[in-house]
Design brief:
alpha+beta; two-stranded antiparallel ribbon; 2 strands; 12% helix
Amino acid sequence: MKRQAIKRRPLADTTLSSLEPEQALYSEHDGNGLYFRVKPNW
């Protein structure tokens, strides 16, 4: 799943498991200061 397609917060388990790596490291915010870091797949 591309991160532009995410519409709802907090993130569901299925959304987190389907996040795709991009060219650079990015953070996907869930709310209340919680975020997930997605690393590039080199």
